[in-house]
Every structure is written in structure tokens, then in C-alpha cells.
Write a structure and sequence with these properties.
The protein has 154 residues and is an alpha+beta fold. It has one domain (2-152): GAF domain (Beta-Lactamase). 39% of the residues lie in helices and 27% in strands. The chain has five helices and six strands; from the N terminus they run ααβββαβββαα. A six-stranded antiparallel beta sheet has the order 3-2-1-6-5-4, with helices on both faces. The mean pLDDT is 93.
Length: 154
């Protein structure tokens, strides 16, 4: 599935290299292809905090401080966060009380975190290592095919 997702994503990026269109289509793709999600989208780095970007799902937290919650932890440490039970994650930010598991993958531009991919599920243990590796591949595609300088300078 992740190979198919990568092919589709690359096609969307060729069609619309603008970051907003690209991330909007990526969010829709994640939401369409993955089962048991209640949120799929992006947070973008701006002024040393994460700001809500394109997504599919219920309204979400607009700002997340670096190091706070699952997204802030992934952004700060530049590491994938695979969380089988968000209620056991110290400092979890509950934007949607229906979420029970989460996968967050940083998107790096050079050595800097420019965004995170955030996936939430109402199921416990929804995400596994295959999902983490698949989305790390997706993050690398996004890293290489979006003009992140435009995003950073917005």
C-alpha cells in the first residue's frame, strides 16, 4: 500500500508543487487509503512552534509548542513517534477525545524539522512499524519535492 501511496503522492506533487495544494492532497490521500483514522494531516513549523496545516478530520489544535504532545516531541527530536495508546503518553494533547493511538513522522529539510505528518485513530494499537516505515518514506518524498523555503518564509 505504501508503494502505491508514494506513486500517487509523486503524481500529485508533479501536478501541484505548491505546498498547500500538495499537503492538502496528501492529507486526502492518507484519509482515503488508510482505515480507522479520525484525523490525517500536517503541522508546519513556524517561529519555533507547530502551526496547523492542511488536514482531513475534525477541527484541531492550532498551535503546538516544540516538545509538547506527540507532535511537538516528534518535531523537537526529529524522530517518528509510534504511540499505541495516547492516554499513556505523558503530555499528550487531546485535540479529539476519540483518538486512542497516533503516528507522527517529522518532515526534515536539511537538518531542520519543517513539518510533521500526524495520523490519529480511535483504535488502540492502530499503527505499527510498517506504518511508521511507510510514512517515513512519504516524509522523504515530501521533503525532496516541496519548496520548503516558500513554506518557511510564509
Amino acid at each position: 500500500m505504501y508503494d502505491f501511496m508514494a506513486v500517487r503522492l509523486k503524481a500529485y506533487l508533479e501536478e501541484a508543487p505548491d505546498w498547500c495544494s500538495a499537503l492538502g492532497n496528501a492529507s486526502a490521500l492518507f484519509n482515503a487509503l488508510l482505515k480507522d483514522l479520525n484525523w490525517a494531516g500536517f503541522y508546519l513549523m513556524k517561529d519555533h512552534e507547530l502551526i496547523l496545516g492542511p488536514f482531513q478530520g475534525k477541527p484541531a489544535c492550532v498551535r503546538i509548542a516544540l516538545g509538547k504532545g506527540v507532535c511537538g516531541t516528534a518535531a523537537l527530536h526529529k524522530t517518528t513517534q509510534l504511540v499505541p495508546d495516547v492516554h499513556a503518553f505523558e503530555g499528550h494533547i487531546a485535540c479529539d477525545s476519540a483518538s486512542n493511538s497516533e503516528l507522527v513522522v517529522p518532515v526534515l529539510f536539511g537538518e531542520n524539522t519543517v513539518a510533521v505528518i500526524d495520523l490519529d485513530s480511535p483504535l488502540l494499537n492502530r499503527f505499527d512499524e510498517e506504518d511508521a516505515l511507510g510514512f517515513e518514506k512519504i516524509a522523504k518524498i515530501l521533503s525532496g519535492q516541496i519548496d520548503w523555503q516558500t513554506v518557511l518564509n510564509r
